Automatic annotation (TrEMBL):
GO molecular function, a single term: hydrolase activity
Membrane topology: Peripheral membrane protein
GO biological-process terms attached to the record: fatty acid metabolic process
Top enzyme category: hydrolase
Pfam hit, one: 4HBT
Subcellular location: Cell projection, Ruffle membrane; Cytoplasm; Membrane
Organism: Dendrosporobacter quercicolus
Keywords linked to the UniProt accession: Apoptosis, Cell membrane, Cell projection, Cytoplasm, Fatty acid metabolism, Hydrolase, Lipid metabolism, Membrane, Transit peptide
Catalysed reaction, written as an equation: (5Z,8Z,11Z,14Z)-eicosatetraenoyl-CoA + H2O = (5Z,8Z,11Z,14Z)-eicosatetraenoate + CoA + H(+); (9Z)-octadecenoyl-CoA + H2O = (9Z)-octadecenoate + CoA + H(+); decanoyl-CoA + H2O = decanoate + CoA + H(+); tetradecanoyl-CoA + H2O = tetradecanoate + CoA + H(+)
Residue ranges annotated for the Thioesterase domain, each copy included: 50-121
Protein name as catalogued: Acyl-coenzyme A thioesterase THEM4
EC number(s) reported in the record: 3.1.2.2
């Protein structure tokens, strides 16, 4: 599993960059065939009072899905991202964000993702099509 820093994701990445002062600073791990990160949104991430902004939700899902392909050793970009907002995601509560590969056709990889609360309630789901541009140097 490749670390998410350096040439392609960068230390200033909004989602995972360790040096971005306003970034989310996400850290990832792989468990079996699933890529996982955890995040607790603060008031600076809200839209309506107490609710995580939809753009942050979309960012979390995009990052866990496309980032998984990068972690597998490929330079990849999101070609398509679909987000289904099932319930408002509350700020201040720990979130588990997961992504997994569900298919591949040529250099296009399909992934699915979820955001869930500690009690297992899914607040958002995503599907992404990711284009693999090249294999990264080891």
């Amino acid at each position: 599993m490749r670390e998410r820093s350096g040439r392609y994701s960068g230390e200033m990445c909004f989602a995972c960059g360790i040096n971005n002062p306003i970034g989310l600073k996400l850290k990832f791990r792989e468990e079996e065939d699933t890529y996982i990160t955890n995040f607790t949104a603060g008031t600076e991430h809200q839209s309506y009072d107490g609710i995580v902004h939809g753009g942050i939700i979309s960012t979390l899902l995009d990052e866990v899905m496309t980032g998984y392909i990068y972690a597998k050793g490929y330079n990849a970009v999101t070609a398509r991202l679909d987000v289904r907002f099932r319930k408002p995601t509350p700020i201040g509560e720990p979130l588990k964000i997961t992504g997994k590969m569900i298919g591949q056709r040529g250099n296009m990889i399909e992934l699915s993702g979820t955001i869930e609360l500690a009690d297992g309630t899914i607040t958002a789901q995503g599907k992404a099509t990711v284009a693999v541009l090249e294999e990264l140097e080891q």
